[in-house]
Amino acid sequence: MTMRNDPCWCGSGKKYKKCHEAFDRTLMDLKKKGCKVPTHKMIKSEEDMKWIREAAKVNNGALDLVQSKIKAGMTTNEIDKMVHDYTIEHGGIPACLGYEGFPKSCCTSINDQVCHGIPDDTVLEDGDIVNVDCTTIVNGHYADASRMFCIGKVSPAAKKLVDVTKECLEAGIAAVKPWGHLGDVGAAIQEIAHANGYSVVLDYCGHGVGNDFHEDPMVQHVGTRGTGIILAPGMVFTIEPMINEGVCSLFIDADNDWTSYTDDGKLSAQWEHTIAVHDDGVEIIAW
């Protein structure tokens, strides 16, 4: 048990009574009311936040570079090389490379690929939509984001899916409130997706991030308002809805055990940001 004059558990160097004592009392009161509350392990210190932001600077820069260069005729391997080289040159480590055997530095998922597309010699064509997903490590800390890109002139249906998926992400972020509920995030996302006739992928979700690639809590993109874990200041996690034009079901490529495809062959889109919860609101760290 931490005593009031002990150093705070967060590592700030302050006395507990001057740091997280009131925070812990709030958590205890919420727990007594039946709420699910985060563990201390889910709460990032200021030192953690410093390095997560540094990782995000590199990650955002890599995606900015892709955004400025991506075009029809480019291979997904060329995208991967851009991400890899930029990340290394700016003092980062590509977290995807070697993660559980993943062979590349980013994921490139095209058209009916839901996620985890492996860069190769596939050439981007006019009309494609593609998600590029990057995670960067700096000083042992992680930032994670992905963006959709429309290649050349895409169909109105494809453009709508990309735009609505971004709207879903933005609604999910807007639903994050200090001391609110995680279920509000999924509820906001699914309402917009379903209103547009789309489905929400259930097999994958957002996640805590910062001190590791994947941490608690799991961030579902469907939900019920007023339910789920309490969103306490200091939490850092991704929101990354994958929205399908058709059914939500998918299958994984048997040849590489990574790439997911929609079951019905229709389009899928995804946007991802890393966000932090603060006392006064939300910070978008990686985008």
Which spans of ≥5 residues are poorly predicted at pLDDT below 50?
Answer: none
Average pLDDT works out at 98
Tell me, what is the CATH class?
A: Alpha Beta
Q: Which band does the percent of strand residues land in?
A: 15-25%
Number of discrete helical segments: 5
Number of domains: 1
CATH topology category name: Creatine Amidinohydrolase
Please give the alpha-carbon distance between the first and last residues. 38 Å
Please, could you describe this protein's structure?
The chain has helices spanning 21-32, 46-69, 76-89, 156-174, 183-195, and strands spanning 93-94, 107-110, 113-115, 129-138, 141-150, 180-181, 199-200, 206-208, 215-219, 230-231, 236-239, 242-244, 250-252, 260-262, 268-270, 273-278, 281-286. By secondary structure, the protein is of the alpha+beta class. The protein has one domain: Creatinase/methionine aminopeptidase superfamily (Creatine Amidinohydrolase, Alpha-Beta Complex). The strands form six sheets. Strands 1, 2, 4 and 5 form a four-stranded antiparallel beta sheet that branches. Strand 4 (129-138) and strand 5 form a beta hairpin. The longest helix is centred in the N-terminal third of the chain and has 24 residues, at 46-69. The model has no long low-confidence stretch (mean pLDDT 98).
